[in-house]
Amino acid sequence: MALVVQKYGGSSVGSTDRLMAVARRLIRAKERGDQVVAVVSAMGDVTDELLDKARAISADPPEREMDMLLATGEQVTIALLAMAIDTLGHQAISFTGAQAGIVSDAVHTKARIQEVRADRMMEALDAGRIVIVAGFQGLTPDGEITTLGRGGSDTTAVAVAAGLGADVCEIYTDVDGVFTADPRVEPLARKIDTISYEEMLEMAATGARVLQLRSVEFARNHNVVIHVRSSFNDREGTIVKEADETMEQAIISGVTHDTSEAKVTVRDVPDRPGVAAEVFGRLADANVNVDMIIQNVSEAGTTDISFTTPKDDLVRAIKAVGEVVADLGAREWSVDESIAKVSLVGAGMKTHPGVAALMFRSLADAGVNLDMISTSAIRISCVIAADQVDTAVRTLHKAFGLDERSVIAETAPAAPGA
Amino acid sequence: MALVVQKYGGSSVGSTDRLMAVARRLIRAKERGDQVVAVVSAMGDVTDELLDKARAISADPPEREMDMLLATGEQVTIALLAMAIDTLGHQAISFTGAQAGIVSDAVHTKARIQEVRADRMMEALDAGRIVIVAGFQGLTPDGEITTLGRGGSDTTAVAVAAGLGADVCEIYTDVDGVFTADPRVEPLARKIDTISYEEMLEMAATGARVLQLRSVEFARNHNVVIHVRSSFNDREGTIVKEADETMEQAIISGVTHDTSEAKVTVRDVPDRPGVAAEVFGRLADANVNVDMIIQNVSEAGTTDISFTTPKDDLVRAIKAVGEVVADLGAREWSVDESIAKVSLVGAGMKTHPGVAALMFRSLADAGVNLDMISTSAIRISCVIAADQVDTAVRTLHKAFGLDERSVIAETAPAAPGA
Question: Does B61 contact A120 at a Cβ distance shorter than 8 Å?
Answer without folding.
Answer: no
